[in-house]
Amino acid sequence: MAEKFGAKSTADEVLSGINLKGKRFLITGASSGIGLETARSLVSHGASVVGAVRNLAKAEPATASVRDAASQGGSLELINLDLASLQSVHACADKLLADGQPFDAIIANAGVMATPFGRTIDGFEVQFGTNHLGHFALINQIEPLLVDNGRLVVLSSLSHRGADIDLDDPNFEQQAYDPWVAYSRSKTANSLFAVEFNRRHRDRGIRAASVMPGNSLTDLPRHFSPEDLQELLQTVDAAHRSGSAAERVERNSAGSRNVGLGSSRS
After folding, report:
1. pTM value?
2. Terminal-residue alpha carbon distance, the chain
């Protein structure tokens, strides 16, 4: 590909001149942020998109721009998915499998970031359960729907550099909860999942990639105070100017900070 893209390239610029008619995509978290823009751009280039969303009633008006973009034969269908509930995950997967229509690509976009401590319905720490375990269960269950030579894209974050996965205490039962450590662990898990999925399924021509989507100001950092968000963005800007790949987790009285903004909410 001769065209070069950079940090400010838009989805429409990347897809310029590409006809995606006949291609089918699954996007989690398709009703806001990066997921919404991804769905809009794919549909505007002719793709059929299934958007997995947590709240169908709210997602219908929120995705109006995607339907408006369907001028080249593209389409949008919404399906209910709560990644913090394995029952919902399995119900979504069962529905997709019963439908039987294949996907050319799956984009695991949905997620939460630096949330107050909480547990999923199944008892997992919220960030690990939502960002990793929900996607892990969904994608492995619907893997037969991914076509040969298909693609899996898992949105991670530079925050994966902040912490490894603690397999002995993944739910913070034996240590004080740190929202940034929890987020970093979930992003590490996202990256490792993509690596292993790629290894296991490349005999079908499938390739999986873990990607850092950039520092897009969506509603993902909704748990931040304005001051914390400004500090984060300044740190990101400084890191980019210095050419460093990522900033390490920084500790202070308010907790740790990390530069990686990741995916949009589920």
Report:
1. 0.83
2. 32
25-43 pLDDT per residue, tens = 999 999 999 999 999 999 9
User: What are the Cα distances from residue 221, in Å, to 54, 158, 215, 228?
Assistant: 18, 15, 11, 10
In the 8-state DSSP scheme, what is residue 44?
Answer: H
| Helices marked H in 63-145 | 64-68, 86-99, 126-127, 135-142
Catalytic residue among 85, 159, 183, 191: 183
| Catalytic residue of the set 156, 157, 256, 263 | 156
Inter-axis angle of helices 135-142 and 179-201, to 10 degrees? 10
Contact of 157 with 187, CB cutoff 8 Å: yes
Domains, in order of start, for the chain:
12-219 (3.40.50.720)
Burial label, 173 (beta-carbon count in 10 A; 0-12, 13-18, 19+): exposed
For residues 250 and 104, give the distance between their C-alpha atoms in angstroms, rounded to a whole number: 40
Q: Are 52 and 28 in contact (CB under 8 A)?
A: yes
pLDDT in the model for residue 226: 66
156 counts as catalytic = yes
Structure tokens at 85: 């509930």
Question: How many Å apart are CA 20 and CA 118, to the nearest integer?
Answer: 40
